[in-house]
Write a structure and sequence with these properties.
It is a single chain. By secondary structure, the chain is α/β, with parallel strands linked by helices. Strand 8, helix 8 and strand 9 form a beta-alpha-beta unit. It starts with 8 loop residues before the first helix and ends in an 8-residue tail after the last strand.
């Protein structure tokens, strides 16, 4: 769990509130997603902030679904969000839905109408936009603004009873069409939507707008600090207006923080849904997606994500974080948890000419750089595979791996020399003929010549064929600086692995020696051929500043 001793400007506000005796010395937060899509890594920051803040002050945190728009919401998203919060390591105090408060919200709306603070408007959405004005010009009052209280009550009830079609009428707050804050220019409170709700069915055909519903939800639950992202800062006066005019005591305090932006990553539910709907990715949990479901399937750990959220901190101004920092946190976590396996991604056959035909021996290979992790036995025979990247027919200066006439250590086994190169009719290298020195077995008494290069390998006789999916960013920057789809966001390798990969647990992560960290993809693997996802490579491009 993240360090609960850390502090930020939000905690400074809470410290001040507690020192002044506000809220009876309690802290109550909530994480309030709308169930209209899968959560992404940006939501992870909000989840961690709300839950760890409650933990720090021995308070409570609710998981509340803001399900006020039945057209876009679905039970599938509710279930995925619950799973995401649990995966990150948090447990809510109460599981709640905004729809549980629809009766109360309706009563609050009626209260505003009776107080002359709300009216039913017949303007279309386009007309309302035209009447709203601009940042430099005041808006124009709706011709329906001065309807009588009795008429408004009658129309609003008829809206509830389903007498009017969608878009024909809305309930608006009566505030100030000349307000310098456009959000206060008679904002919409209720709209008509003849749609079946995932919780309430067809009971309602009018639904509250987010800016009306959210403060009421917070007030009902006794939330003390309503923590939200910076785009809601201009909505705070409306939040406070709704609380005040509907008569709630001990009003919640809204506090805004900067949302998370990552390089080469767009975090918009609308954009991500379009990728899924258009078939650009293989579902919400595609390992290239920045969704929490996607990074979970990718093999990222909740510990790494929480560490990342703590490192980036909580700021008042928006900024963009290098994706490399998230990958760095993943590496830092995995390097302490994983054992290594030898996997050859792009295989070239190696025949050890002087090794006895039909013989197989087992050599000892260390499981990691930590001695306490021990060793494992790996089969070695006359026929092997090495990575194509570990051979160069005409070596460049400083190249110490396999090339004609050069001797290298095969990890955990023997010194081998490449003596002959076999090519096909197109000039492609298909086989390397080598000889080995039986006196150079690793772990033996050999103390003769030294070699500069050590390469990994697998035994061809017992190798397990595996598919390896190496994912990259979905987006890259073109020459004009625009974000465009990356045509190379997925590279597929048909590789060979040492037999012990079959012993890995279903969710066990491992290091493929010299390649990176990997996890088995349960959705794509078959009984005959496992499929592995590259979590992150070994080399970090991110540097501490």
């Amino acid at each position: 769990m993240a360090d609960l001793e850390f502090s930020n400007f939000i905690h400074n506000i809470i410290d001040k509130d507690l020192a002044e005796g506000k809220n009876g010395g309690t802290v109550y937060t909530r994480f309030p997603p709308e169930p209209n899509g899968y959560l992404h890594i940006g939501h992870a920051k909000s989840i961690c902030l709300n839950f760890t803040t409650a933990q720090k002050y021995n308070g409570k945190c609710n998981l509340r679904f803001d399900d006020t728009n039945p057209v876009k919401e679905d039970t599938e998203y509710v279930e995925s969000i619950e799973e995401d919060v649990k995966w990150l390591g948090f447990q809510w105090d109460k599981l709640l839905f905004a729809s549980e408060y629809f009766d109360t919200m309706y009563e609050c709306a009626v209260k505003l109408i009776k107080a002359g603070k709300a009216y039913v408007c017949d303007l279309s959405a386009e007309e309302i936009k035209a009447y709203r004005g601009t940042l430099t010009e005041p808006g124009k009052e709706s011709p329906y603004r001065n309807r009588s209280i009795e008429e408004n009550l009658d129309l609003f009830e008829r809206m509830k009873n389903g007498e009017f079609p969608d878009g024909s009428k809305i309930l608006r707050a009566k505030i100030d069409m000349a307000s310098p804050n456009i959000n206060m220019r008679d904002p919409a409170l209720y709209r008509i939507a003849h749609a079946t709700h995932h919780k309430t069915g067809d009971k309602w055909c009018i639904y509250p707008m987010y800016d009306f519903a959210h403060p009421i939800e917070d007030a009902i639950e006794g939330i003390t600090h309503s923590i939200c992202t910076l785009e809601f800062e201009d909505h705070r006066p409306l939040y406070d207006w709704v609380i005040r005019e509907t008569g709630w005591e001990n009003p919640p305090q809204q506090i805004e923080f900067a949302r998370l932006n990552l390089t080469n990553t767009l975090m918009s539910k609308r954009y991500l849904k379009a990728l899924v709907d258009n078939g650009d990715v293989n579902g919400w949990d595609d390992p290239r997606m920045p969704t929490i479901a996607g990074i979970r399937r990718r093999g990222y750990t909740p510990e790494a994500v929480r560490d990342f959220c703590e490192r980036i901190g909580v700021a008042k101004a928006n900024s963009t974080v290098d994706m490399g920092l998230l990958e760095h946190c993943v590496r830092e976590d995995l390097k302490e948890k994983t054992l290594s396996k030898m996997v050859v991604m792009d295989p070239i056959k190696v025949t050890v000419r002087n090794y006895p035909e039909g013989q197989t021996e087992y050599v000892e290979v260390e499981n990691s750089k930590k001695p306490e992790d021990g060793t494992r036995k790996v089969p070695f025979s006359r026929n092997l595979y090495v990575d194509r990247s570990d051979f160069m027919e005409v070596p460049v200066k400083g190249y110490f791996r396999l090339f004609p006439g050069n001797e290298v250590r095969f990890k955990g086994a023997y010194f081998l020399v490449c003596e002959e190169v076999v090519k096909d009719e197109n000039g492609n290298v298909t086989e390397l003929i080598c000889t080995y020195d039986p006196e150079t077995k690793c772990g033996g008494t050999f103390s003769g010549r030294k070699v500069k290069g050590t390469i990994h390998w697998v035994d061809a006789e017992t190798a397990v064929p595996v598919t390896v999916n190496a994912y990259d960013s979905l987006l890259i920057e073109d020459e004009e600086g625009n974000q465009v789809m990356n045509p190379n966001s997925l590279t597929v390798y048909h590789a060979f692995a040492e037999p012990s990969v079959l012993e890995l647990g279903e969710d066990e992560r491992c290091q493929f020696f010299r390649h990176g960290y990997y996890i088995k993809d349960k959705k794509l693997s078959t009984e005959t051929e496992p499929v592995y996802t590259r979590i992150v490579d070994l080399k970090s491009s991110w540097k501490k500043k």
